[in-house]
Each structure stands twice: as structure tokens, then as C-alpha cells.
Write a sequence for this structure.
């Protein structure tokens, strides 16, 4: 993995991605996958590596948001109940490389729209999520999280905000833990199917944590990262085009 072409450039960009995602309560898997796609990592290496990075970065993000008092257990549980087993099932399924790339390219579209604030803006009136809504949405997101190698927060956060189930910081805290449990379940599912985590992946974890710790701390307080959002959205767009046509 560390023998990839331009690996030092990859390692320089990685903490910037983890910083931005952690600042909004996300683990960053969609960003890591986009970056790995640009640097021609194999799908077999991309999925477990992205989930491993998610575990650490989302864990850091949740820690800071939880300490700041934004976590809502009542909002989190309906999504997690079904997402955890479905992420395991998704993680245990091996997807053909070309199909994997196309699904990932489509899901990156959610990440791009979220980064550009096209949807998922905070509203004033908050309503309670119904149990059946949380179970259905959590199960669907969980399955694709394990299948593709993302935590699902990039999809859950805008849904929470669009349907007025929580405010921005609250959605970030819930999404951070949601990402963590899905990443853990999806990774276990992948390992059970015979996928192996390369030792080099833990080097990437150490690099990503540099940005993750700083982003989680600043994001749980107050930070303006509009310009970084636009840059990341551009990177995600290029990666999605590359995935669609390769």
C-alpha cells in the first residue's frame, strides 16, 4: 500500500480530509475512498482501510462532540438497531470491482452535495423521529455502509437535518457514533469473509489522526471551513468521474 505512486502526496492530503470530516462529526470514509481511487488503490484494499480509518477518526469526533453535550441517545438508537447487523451483512458481501466503483461514485454524490450544503441545512423546528423511520433508514444506510466501506454519516446527517430530527451539532454527534458502530460492524463482516487488513493501513491511521484530533476539537466548538469544503467537494467530484469511467 505504501508502495503506491506518489504516496507522499497521498499522505500529505490524508490529514486534511480527516480534519474536515472530523470537524463535522464524520469519519471521512467517502473522502478516503475518493482519495484512494485517485491514487489507484485496489477495491480490496480500499474498503477495509476506509473503515479502519473511520473507526479512529469518527471515534475522536464523537468524543469531542459528546464532551460538548451534543449527543442525543434517543435520536441515535432507532438508526443503530438495524444499521449494525445490516452493516455486517453488507461487509461480508464481495462486490465485483467495476460494480463497486459505480456504486461508490453514486454515493460520493451525497458527499459532494453535503459538502456544498445543497441539502441538509439546519432548521429551527425539531420533531421526533418515529421508530419505524429510524429502523428502515438505519438498515438501508447500514447495508450500503458495509458493502462499500463507509460509515454512513454522510447520508444520515443530511437526512436528520432535512426531516428536522435534530440540529447541526446534534446531528454531527449522532452521526459520529453511527459511523463508528457501522464501521466496526462492516469491518468485522469483511474480516469474516476473508479480507485482510494490511499492516500499512495502520500507518495511514496515524497520519489521519493528526487531522482527526484537530478537526474534532475545533468542530465541536466553532470553526469556519467553507473554503475547505469547496476544495474537498472538487476532489470528490473528480474521484467520482474517475470511478464512473474506469
Amino acid at each position: 500500500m505504501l508502495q503506491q505512486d506518489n504516496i507522499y502526496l497521498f499522505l500529505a492530503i490524508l490529514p486534511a480530509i480527516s480534519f474536515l470530516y472530523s470537524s463535522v462529526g464524520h469519519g471521512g470514509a467517502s473522502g478516503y475512498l475518493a482519495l484512494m481511487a485517485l491514487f489507484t488503490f485496489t477495491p480490496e484494499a480500499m474498503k477495509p482501510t476506509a473503515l479502519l480509518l473511520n473507526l479512529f477518526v469518527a471515534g475522536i469526533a464523537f468524543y469531542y462532540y459528546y464532551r460538548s453535550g451534543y449527543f442525543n441517545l434517543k435520536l441515535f438508537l432507532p438508526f443503530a438497531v438495524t444499521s449494525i447487523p445490516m452493516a455486517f451483512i453488507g461487509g461480508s458481501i464481495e462486490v465485483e470491482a467495476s460494480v463497486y466503483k459505480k456504486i461508490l461514485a453514486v454515493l460520493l454524490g451525497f458527499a459532494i452535495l453535503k459538502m456544498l450544503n445543497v441539502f441538509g441545512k439546519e432548521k429551527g423546528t425539531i420533531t421526533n423521529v418515529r421508530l419505524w423511520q429510524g429502523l428502515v433508514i438505519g438498515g438501508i444506510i447500514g447495508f450500503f455502509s458495509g458493502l462499500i466501506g463507509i460509515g454512513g454519516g454522510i447520508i444520515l446527517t443530511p437526512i436528520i437535518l432535512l426531516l428536522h430530527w435534530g440540529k447541526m451539532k446534534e446531528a454531527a454527534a449522532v452521526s459520529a457514533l453511527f459511523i463508528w458502530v457501522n464501521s466496526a460492524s462492516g469491518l468485522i463482516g469483511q474480516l469474516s469473509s476473508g479480507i485482510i487488513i494490511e499492516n500499512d493501513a495502520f500507518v495511514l491511521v496515524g497520519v489521519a489522526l493528526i487531522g482527526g484530533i484537530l478537526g474534532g476539537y475545533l468542530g465541536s466548538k466553532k470553526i469556519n471551513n467553507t473554503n475547505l469544503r469547496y476544495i474537498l467537494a472538487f476532489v470528490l467530484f473528480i474521484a467520482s468521474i474517475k470511478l464512473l469511467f474506469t
